[in-house]
Amino acid sequence: QVRLIESGGGLQQAGGSLRLSCAASGLTFASYEMGWFRQAPGKEREFVAAIRWHDNATLYTDSMQGRVTISRNKASDTTYLQMNDLKPEDTAVYYCGIRDNPLHMVMTRLTSRYGYWGQGTQVTVSS
């Protein structure tokens, strides 16, 4: 079964950096994307970034463009989210997810297209 485990969250001051990791196991997809999303209290889960596994293509949310970088290690089935210049409004639970994409459809920011999720890691940014 698919399992995703996030790590790397914590408390950081505004302007600081954090690197989140998501280790995947049980993957049997021919083609897929791994994405990072976040959910602040009282808000819906929102897209942050995604990476397409077979060609390393990436997609970012406009609101964090330039401050986040997604990458992956194919050998370990791990994806990373490097976040710089953190702001208090970045405070949220960050989740990684997988979208099975066997037909190589265009990458998406839609939460509903992702079928597998990790348990999340809390990121708190103090001002």
Plain-language structure description:
There is one protein chain. With 127 residues, the protein is mainly β. The protein has no helices and eleven strands. The strands form two sheets. Strands 2, 4, 5, 6, 9, 10 and 11 form a seven-stranded mixed sheet that branches. A four-stranded antiparallel sheet has the order 1-3-8-7, with no helix packed on it. A hairpin with a 4-residue loop joins strand 7 (68-73) and strand 8 (78-83). It is globular and about 45 Å long. The model has no long low-confidence stretch (mean pLDDT 95).
Helix share, percent: under 10%
Query: Would you identify the regions where 5 or more consecutive residues have pLDDT less than 50?
Result: none
Instruction: Characterize the largest beta sheet: strand count, sense, and whether it forms a barrel.
Output: 7 strands, mixed
CA-atom Rg in angstroms:
14 Å
Oligomer: single chain
Record field, number of beta strands: 11
Q: What key attributes describe this structure?
A:
single chain; 127 residues; mainly beta; 4-stranded antiparallel beta sheet; 0% helix
Q: How are the SSEs placed, and which strands pair?
A:
Elements: E1 3-7, E2 10-13, E3 18-25, E4 32-39, E5 46-52, E6 58-60, E7 68-73, E8 78-83, E9 92-100, E10 116-117, E11 121-126
Parallel strand pairs: 2-11
Antiparallel strand pairs: 1-3, 3-8, 4-5, 4-9, 5-6, 7-8, 9-10, 9-11
